[in-house]
Predict the 3D structure of the following.
Amino acid sequence: MASAVIQRVICLCRYLQDPCHVARFQQRCGVKGTFPRKSPETEREAGELELSPNGACMRRGQEEGEQGVQGPQLRKSADTSVGQSESIHGSPNGAAAVSGADTPDGEGAGPTKSSSGLSDAPKQISSSSAGGKRGDSRGRVKPLRKNSLTGDVGQEFIIENKFLFYLFTVGTELGNEMFFIVFFPFLMWNVDAYVSRQVIVVWVWVLFFGQSTKDLVGWTRPASPPVVKVEVFYNFEYSMPSVHAMTGTSVPFCLFLLTYSRWEYPFLFGLSVAICWSFLVCISRIYMGMHSVLEVIVGFLYSLLILAAFHPVLDVIDAFYLSSSSAPLVILLLHVGLALLAFSLDSWSTSRGDTAQALATGAGGALACHLNHQLGLQPDPPLSSLPLKLPIIDRALLGRSLLRLLVGVAVLLAVRAVMKAVAIPLACRLFGVPSDDVRKARQNANVELTYRFLVYGTVAFCCVFLVPLFFDYLNLS
C-alpha cells in the first residue's frame, strides 16, 4: 500500500514537472515563441550534441565520461520534433540560435544538472504561432531586463494579450529587489515599524532556505523550447523550489497574521489581499517560463511551513534583537555565517548573491533597530493603544506618506549608488582580485559576499536609522 502511494506521488510529480504544461499555459495567455527552424547542418549534429536545460551544450557521453554524472539525472534532448511538420533549434533557456548558425557553445552557461531527475524528456510542443507570424516582427518583444552578471538578454517572443503580460509582469516584480527596496521602507516609515521588523525576519529566512534548497536540489529551469523565456534575469539559477512563490506567499500571509490582531480591519479583506497577492506571484512565474507547476506548488507549501515555524517565535526574536547586549554580535555572526554556508553549497550562480543580499539587509536592519531601541528612538505604540485603528485617508495623509516615500527612497538609492561605486574596488583590493572586469570579479565568492554586505547592509541601516532622523529634520515624521 505504501509503495503504491509513493509511486502515485512520483507519477504526479513527473506530470507537474513537465515543461509542456508551462508552454500550454503560455500559449493560452497569448505568449508565442519565435524559435527558428533547424538548418541541415544542425540536423546532422543533433545526434552528437545535447543541450542542458540551462543552455549548456555538450556532446553525448562527454559529460558522463569526463564528469562522472550518475543516477537518474536526465537531460532534455535537442532533437525532439515539434508538431507534425516543424522542428526547432535553440538553447533550452530561450536564447535560440539563428537558423543555420553555429550551435551554441554554452559559454557562461548555468548549472547542468537534471531538470527534475524524475522523468524522461517530455514531449515538446510548439510555442510559435502558425505561419505568417514567424516572419512578422510586429508585436515582438524581448525580456524586460537582462542580468548584468551573465549578459543573457534572451530571445524575442510575441505577446498577443498585453493585459496579461503587464499583469504578470507586475506579479513577478513583487518578488524582485526594486519592489522590496520600496515596500519595506514604506511599511517601516508609514505603517508600522513593529510589523516591518518581523516581516523582514521572515523574508530573510525564507530567502535563505529557498535559495539554499535550490542549490542542494539542483534542478534546472524548464526546457526551452517548448517553454518561452519571457524573463531571463534568473535564468542561470536552479529552479526547485520557486523562491518568488515563497516570498510572494510568506510576505503577504505574514503581514496578515501580524496585522489582524494589531489593527482593526475586516478579516476577509486581509485574507483576500494575501491570497490574491500570493496567487498573482505564483502564476506569474509559470507565465514567465521560469518555473514548472510542481516548483511553484512546492515553493508555496515550503513557505507556509517556514512561516508556521517562525511565526510563534517572532516576538522572542524581535525582543532579543532590540534589547539584548549581545544582539549586535549575534546578528553579525549569524547572518555572515549563513551567507558563508550558502556560498559553499554549490559553484557560482546569481542565487548566491541574492541570498547574501537578503542576509545583509536583515543584518543591517536588525543592527539599526537595536541602536534605535538603545537610544529611545522610534518607540512602538504602547500595548494599551492596541488594536490600532486605521487612519482616515485624506489628501494630507496621502501627500505626507508619498513625500516620505519619495524622499526616503531617493536617499536609499543615492546611498546604494555610492556604496556600489566604493564596495567593488575595495573588495577587489582586499582579496587581490583584478577589478577591471566587474562581472568576473563578482564571481569571486569573497568579493561578492563583501560587496553585498557593504552595499545592502548599509542601505538597510540607513533605512531604519538615518532616514527617520532625516524625516525629523525635515518635519516629515
User: Anything to note?
Assistant: The first helix runs from residue 2 to 17.
